[in-house]
Specification:
Number of strands: 5
CATH topology: Arc Repressor Mutant, subunit A
Number of helices: 5
Radius of gyration: 17 Å
Distance between the termini: 18 Å
């Protein structure tokens, strides 16, 4: 299955979750950073589906499980996960989503369904933007693309 369709297509989600969590745990061990129980649980919560969640939504889940009730608990965990590349922040939604390509250095592009909220992450080539930046003397440090539209399930019949 092409990785670009992961958020919209049927797939073995338990395998998807297991692989992403394993990659994150291995990367933490390799980098010498600590995957605390709160950080791990926050990542697991985001891995449950391909929808973005706000920090307060994650906090509600952490609080219900006795892992903390104050906003800094969620924000610190999410900040760590973003810093390590296991989670992305989607600016348009002011929300977070687990990385669909953990362990790969990439510039994410997000396709966000405006109806159901499902988000698919794609890896794209930013060569054209890079060339334009180089011509103007601009040094790109990070690229994130967010596109809003309709996923295959939410499109009117016959348009998918």
């Amino acid at each position: 299955m092409p990785s670009h369709a992961l958020g919209f297509a049927a797939h073995d989600h338990s395998s998807c979750v297991k692989s992403a969590l394993g990659t994150a745990l291995d990367a933490c061990a390799e980098r010498g950073v600590q995957m605390t129980p709160v950080r791990k649980r926050a990542l697991e919560i985001l891995l449950e589906n391909h929808s973005a969640m706000g920090a307060y939504d994650v906090l509600v889940r952490l609080d219900a499980e006795g892992l903390g009730s104050k906003p800094p608990v969620a924000y610190r965990a999410l900040s760590f996960l973003v810093e390590q590349g296991f989670v992305h922040r989607i600016e348009r939604l002011n929300a977070f989503i687990a990385c669909a390509h953990p362990g790969d250095k990439h510039d994410p592009a997000f396709m966000i369904c405006r109806t159901c909220g499902t988000v698919a992450e794609a890896q794209i080539s930013s060569a054209t933007l890079g060339a334009s930046a180089a011509q103007s003397g601009f040094q790109i440090e990070q690229t994130v693309i967010e596109a809003q539209g309709l996923c295959p399930a939410c499109q009117p019949e016959g348009t998918a």
